[in-house]
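User: Reviewer 2 asked us to show a designed sequence for the structure in our supplementary figure. I'm pasting the structure tokens here. Could you produce the per-position amino acids so we can include them in the response letter?
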């Protein structure tokens, strides 16, 4: 059954890169790190693809709006942490990219293609979730068409309601 508003967000602990250090130390990031904060979780199919790049660069360009709405942002894909490290640096992304290389979190959120383009299996579906500070989903959007992007206006509207 698909996740929806009011559901408890599935726990995650994934590998990220600490892109602030010279040696790009890897670190684990979990849902618990965001207790008491609003969190936007984006799942995206593949780093460096055109739609994913446009989507995440749009988020980068609007990050001030999300910060003003008291929200943190993370983006998750099944790419390796090393690919995500390069993608983040190349696109000057200002939020964490998390590797779900084992595909467990994407599956838990109902955001995993069994079959994707070119015969690839187990790729994250483009999806967006807003999780409140209590770990409850306030917005859920899982897109079947990888060419579509989440409704960022709807996401901002939900975040605005949470900050009231």
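Assistant: Here is a per-position design you can include in the supplement:
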């Amino acid at each position: 059954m698909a996740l929806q508003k009011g559901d408890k967000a599935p726990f995650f602990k994934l590998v990220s890169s600490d892109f602030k250090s010279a040696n790009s130390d890897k670190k684990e990031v979990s849902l618990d790190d965001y207790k008491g904060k609003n969190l936007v979780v984006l799942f995206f199919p593949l780093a460096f693809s055109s739609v994913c790049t446009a989507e995440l660069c749009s988020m980068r360009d609007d990050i001030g709006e999300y910060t003003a709405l008291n929200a943190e942002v993370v983006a998750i894909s099944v790419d390796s942490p090393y690919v995500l490290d390069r993608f983040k640096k190349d696109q000057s992304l200002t939020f964490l990219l998390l590797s779900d290389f084992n595909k467990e979190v994407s599956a838990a959120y109902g955001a995993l293609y069994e079959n994707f383009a070119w015969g690839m299996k187990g790729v994250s579906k483009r999806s967006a979730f807003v999780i409140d500070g209590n770990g409850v989903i306030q917005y859920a959007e899982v897109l079947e068409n990888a060419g579509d992007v989440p409704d960022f206006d709807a996401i901002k509207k939900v975040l605005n309601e949470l900050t009231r």
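For the response letter, you might also mention the following. The longest helix spans residues 50-61. The radius of gyration is 15 Å.
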